Amino acid sequence: MLNRAAGVPMPGDGVFDAITRLHAELDDVHELLSGPEASVRLVLTPEKVVLAEARRAFTSLCLFGYRVDGVIANRVFPTDDADPWRAAWVEAQRAVLAEVAQSFNGLPVHSSEYQPSEPVGVDALADLASTLYGDTDPLAVPEGDGPFRVTRSEDGGAVVHLALPFVSRSEVELARNGDELVMTVGSYRRLLTLPPGLARLRVAGARVDDGELRVRFAEPALEAR
User: Fold this and answer.
1) Cα 166 from Cα 157, distance rounded (Å)
2) CATH class of residue range 148-224
3) What fold does the segment set 34-133 form as a domain?
4) Which of 15, 52, 71, 199 has the fewest CB neighbours in a 10 Å radius?
């Protein structure tokens, strides 16, 4: 019937079923990667352009609900016995590493010196991990709040908290579309499906404070007074 109405050949039911399964599987993957026991670790080299990209990646990951638990600065030049050429790189990297610590304040920053060869094999990777993490457990479950949480207020409303580092309020666009909250930051857009407890409320305001977007929801009756 759809073929006749559209006037063009349409794919069979198997194609639509495959698309439905794909969307369901992608939802499962997102739930797994954004779960409380999952986290992302950013890897960068101490260069200004790379740091700028890492900051953008951090913002994008938080926007979509992925927890970032640390940063690895790779290919750091050793400071010992540096010749003039390498000494210039050491100074340049030292300045960028200071920016890294400031940009990702609150996250552990692990450094790995430039190795004479690529770490290939289990033993080489184990040595690298030992150098990076020391006595800490690199697979420990992340602690503290994730990038997304909801708090309830005494008046029956709620506040949605979403970590958005390096973003100002003017860079964030918000829209309500039925049971969805549409959040746009630059070229990235996230559709957040609101649970029933929030869907019945109305958006009463939003602000960005200390790298966190806070969207306030209130009872419709209270807002109408």
Assistant:
1) 28
2) mainly beta
3) Rossmann fold (3.40.50)
4) 15
DSSP 114: P
94, two tokens: 């030292």
Strands (DSSP E) found in 18-98 = 40-44, 68-76
Give the tens place of pLDDT for each residue, 45-90: 999 999 999 999 999 998 888 899 999 999 999 888 778 888 899 9
Q: Report helix, strand or coil for 205.
A: strand
Distance of CA 41 to the CA centre of its chain: 10
Strands 148-152 and 109-113: unpaired
How many other C-beta atoms are found inside a 10 Å radius of the C-beta of residue 129?
A: 14
Q: What token pair was written down for 81?
A: 């016995």
Task: For residue 3, give Cα distances in angstroms to 15, 20, 98, 209.
Answer: 14, 20, 62, 52
**Cα 118 → chain centroid:** 28
Tens digit of pLDDT for each residue in 174-183? 999 988 899 9
